[in-house]
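Journal club prep — side note

Before the paper discussion, L.F. wants everyone to see what a predicted structure for a comparable chain looks like in token form. Sequence:
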Amino acid sequence: QVQLVESGGGLVQTGDSLRLSCAASGRILNAFSMAWFRQAPGKERAFVSVISNNGARTNYADYAKGRFTISRDNAKNMVYLQMNSLKPEDTAVYFCAGDARNIFRISTYATDYDLWGQGTQVSVSS
């Protein structure tokens, strides 16, 4: 019954910034670890970042470290991904995901997530 909806994607130039948002219906977001994955055309869905249910722990893909920041506001049922210094290789559909089966792990595996949004397109031009 929980739904995730991403927003904030768009077309930007190299070096620009975007902030993606993920809104969750219901008041159970604070029980989930939440993650961002991305999928570029012709490529498999790849891990971007994850944040624990209370926001205390985070993890990032190597390409995201130093450029991307994941955060959450459980009172608002929101998760964010601040993306700075964007590169053309960041172009992808970005998905928000929730891990409803384990409230403690911060997994990098897509198969551990059972709640997914529909995605938001991020396009970065040269």
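L.F.'s comment for the group: The mean pLDDT is 94. Keep this in mind when we get to the figures.
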